[in-house]
UniProtKB/TrEMBL annotation:
<dbReference type="GO" id="GO:0050220">
    <property type="term" value="F:prostaglandin-E synthase activity"/>
</dbReference>
<dbReference type="InterPro" id="IPR036282">
    <property type="entry name" value="Glutathione-S-Trfase_C_sf"/>
</dbReference>
<dbReference type="GO" id="GO:0005739">
    <property type="term" value="C:mitochondrion"/>
</dbReference>
<protein>
    <recommendedName>
        <fullName>GST C-terminal domain-containing protein</fullName>
    </recommendedName>
</protein>
Amino acid sequence: MKFIINYALKVILALQRKSQSTAETWVDALNGREFLGGSKPNLADIAVFGVLRPIRYLRSGRDMVEQTRIGDWYTRMENAVGVSARIKA
């Protein structure tokens, strides 16, 4: 059992490092622009935002936004896209 827990922790840590590395790569691709599309989000911005938005307030998403440079871009995207249109039950 101890082996399984240690293995699971290693996998989780590896995934967190990879997601943070990917976030940094995204910010590098912005190359100083507000969005990949320039002054307004393009389809690539919306696609990446669509992946991040559902996990934003989970631990992994919160860590990514707080521990990488993607936080500023994410905030700009929130402002550009607006509030979620999900239906609350």
